[in-house]
Design brief:
The structure is a homodimer.
Chain A: H1 3-18, H2 23-39, H3 41-57, H4 62-68, H5 72-87, E1 95-100, E2 106-113, E3 116-121, H6 126-137, E4 141-145, H7 151-167, E5 175-177, H8 183-190, E6 198-202, H9 205-214, E7 227-231, H10 237-249, E8 258-264, H11 271-280, E9 284-287, H12 289-295, E10 305-307, H13 310-313, E11 321-327, H14 330-340, E12 345-349, H15 353-362, E13 367-372, E14 389-391, E15 399-401, E16 407-418
Parallel strand pairs in A: 3-4, 3-6, 4-5, 7-8, 7-12, 8-11, 9-10, 9-11, 12-13
Antiparallel strand pairs in A: 1-2, 2-16, 14-15
Chain lengths: ~425, ~425
């Protein structure tokens, strides 16, 4: 057996215990994991400092260094997140159907854990504890594979959580961290369908595409967010401006930030003000010809108005850049979204209910908004609790995936000798 | 664009219309498809006769020829199945959650079609109309790829259904049949993630494994059924015999038929009668040493008692063969199942409620039975309607997948200018 196969086997064995553990034990374990992370803050910070030192030597960009950094505040955040998950209702063991067939066979449909979840992620070390907490709450074992830049931090956090699990009477192998970060071990993990039930990649589209290419384990795609704002001819101008600026600039690096603005030609008079508000926040606008015509001579910072190419419609900038296109109808907006969207989140701004309803019915994305910013596609904001990712595929779960989406079900059939 | 890409694009365009079609239109179309199949029975049978002639020339086995054969009775069955699906409640547009956040944002979770479903199948031509009906009821377009041996039959059935769809005011491209059955076109279909939302392979494990290997589209694995019967020490002997014989012999070729019998050593006295009942039905028994010892000199047909090898535990025979193993506890039975099962259906026969509950809680299969035959894992038998397949994976749906499992959901968020 290879080390990765051994991890798989250990996870599967731990899952046999965890899947029938009672809610109280899991709650207690999560609370102890939260406490342990605070209690061992010094070790975690020491490990993180080593990661940071190495990152600096390797010339990591400032923004990436900040994502890697763990402070007492951030560690408290990780601990609090575990406490929140501990308080979340246990999603396992819910009887969602219970009926008896004419032949007397009683059928119950009962929620159960998925089993073993593999998570491949990059960047921030808090993902380690967030994912572990969500998985354990739903009765799942997790095999985490973080990025090498956070290797020591992730190990420190994992060690603390494993010790807490053990103290709480659960197998420490409920949470494991891959130690061999080679390309080969990642491939092996993706082929471990005997032991892993679901694989969730979290990170760049490059990572997600690699997992889709190689994985033999069922995958949930997450996070690709080429989100659109469509300003209809019947939009309220102030609302249109506020929503666009918020969706683009409040946190440009996240997946629910808007990347393209579509605006109805009859709302063209709103465009110069919106462009000024965006460029004032440092946003470069990549505009189609029609939009450039409208903006010509009407904006305070013409240098920020660039020409859009076809590539722009399909790009998730995750940056202070926004593509802008003028459309002649809501249908053209819907068609554009259909063609280019990653089906994450799209919003229409309009006072016209009929137009809004068409948009919401016909746009095929996990979240469709009428008169609100796309930034609300987030487990916490939607009241779904913490999230393990935002699914952009249609199988299993769509949009924010929290604890309640980390279960499956089985049918339990009880008879008195029924045969067919 | 290749022919396969063109099919994908046509399906996607048809899906835009179908996904917002009202329930009545879909019901009407399904009824017209059912009527058309009856009305055009002669053409369908003529096409089928050509397939049969070619199959005979190619030396197809008698059992396979029978699967391929369409008779007026079987065509009536196909038509009736479409009528049943027409009468099934529309699963689209159900609001499963509706709540308002503190900031006034109203969130609804609404069921929607999956979109475009690809189905790769072998053998029987009735799969063509069954799958088309299930997909259309749930608002999905379908791209079917049947086996070459049923090519003319599948085309005849598809043509009739497409004409009926068109007459009912829906795009005929809601149902398409792949014409190029080369290895390459199958691969292309599996990589068509721009147009196909879900791929469902139906057929041999070789087919399913190929799809898992190659597909870039999310896959639902179906049908692998290495099912177990466990006879506990506290089993009722008659019930144990009846259930085992039924699960093995009532239809050995289907996925919910049992393949392995596990029996508690304290129930060993039941084994000779069970062996006799099975061999009388023509079942060959592949037994471990302990079982052979028990049966030695106590069965009427000793020639049917063979030695089991490790391979037998992992084999789905789909035939009149059953592996037999003696275990010393319910734990050993659960461990055996955990190791060898395809997680389809497993049954325990016991009068001991505590043992039964442990078995049902700990066995990680889509359907677990207490005192009933595994043969009930079937959409119709479980009251779930017709099925497109029986999922053996944990994502999305487990067990029989009917109309209600062919939908996903989206979040519809309505605000009055909320920003974050």
């Amino acid at each position: 057996m290879t080390p990765i196969e051994e991890m798989g086997l250990r996870a599967k064995n731990a899952a046999k215990i965890l899947r029938t553990s009672d809610p109280e034990t899991k709650t207690k374990a999560l609370g102890m994991m939260a406490d342990a992370i605070l209690a061992h803050q010094d070790e975690i910070i020491a490990a993180n400092e080593e990661d940071l030192r190495e990152a600096e030597i390797n010339g990591m960009a400032r923004a990436m260094m900040d994502r890697l950094l763990l402070t007492p505040d951030r560690i408290k955040g990780m601990s609090d997140a575990l406490k929140d998950v501990a308080a979340w209702p246990d999603p396992v063991g819910k009887v969602t159907e219970d009926y008896t067939r004419p032949n007397g066979l009683r059928i119950r449909k009962v929620s159960i854990p998925l089993g073993v979840i593999g998570i491949i992620f990059e960047s921030r070390p808090n993902v380690t504890s967030d994912c572990a907490g969500l998985c354990v709450r739903a009765g799942n074992c997790v095999i985490l594979r973080g990025g090498h830049e956070a290797f020591r931090s992730n190990n420190a956090v994992t060690d603390v959580m494993r010790a807490a699990l053990s103290e709480a009477g659960l197998p420490e192998d409920c949470v494991q961290l891959v130690q061999d970060l080679s390309h080969e071990s990642a491939h092996e993990l993706m082929c471990l369908s005997d032991y892993i039930d679901v694989l969730i990649p979290r990170g760049s589209s490059r990572l997600i595409n690699r997992v889709l290419d190689e994985s033999k384990v069922p995958v949930i795609q997450t996070g690709a967010g080429n989100c659109h704002i469509y300003i209809d001819k019947d939009a309220d101008p102030k609302m249109a401006l506020d929503i666009t600026v918020n969706a683009k600039t409040s946190r440009p690096s996240v997946c629910n930030a808007a990347e393209t603005l579509l605006i109805h030609e009859d709302a063209a008079n709103m465009l110069p003000d919106i462009a000024d508000a965006l460029t004032a926040k440092g946003v470069e606008l990549r505009c189609d010809e029609h939009a450039r015509d409208i903006l010509a001579g009407k904006v305070s910072d013409p240098d920020m108005i660039k020409e859009a190419s076809e590539t722009d419609w399909g790009t998730e900038y995750d940056d202070l850049i926004m593509a802008v296109r003028v459309v002649s109808s809501v249908d053209e907006a819907i068609d554009h979204i259909d063609k280019w969207s990653t089906h994450h989140s799209e919003a229409i701004v309009t006072e016209n209910e009929e137009t809004a309803q068409r948009f919401m019915a016909e746009v095929d994305s996990s979240a469709v908004y009428w008169n609100a910013s796309t930034r609300f596609t987030d487990g916490g904001e939607m009241g779904l609790g913490a999230e393990i990712g935002i699914s952009t595929q249609k199988l299993h779960a769509r949009g924010p995936m929290g604890v309640d989406q980390l279960v499956t079900y089985k049918f339990m059939l009880t008879g008195d000798g029924q045969i067919r």
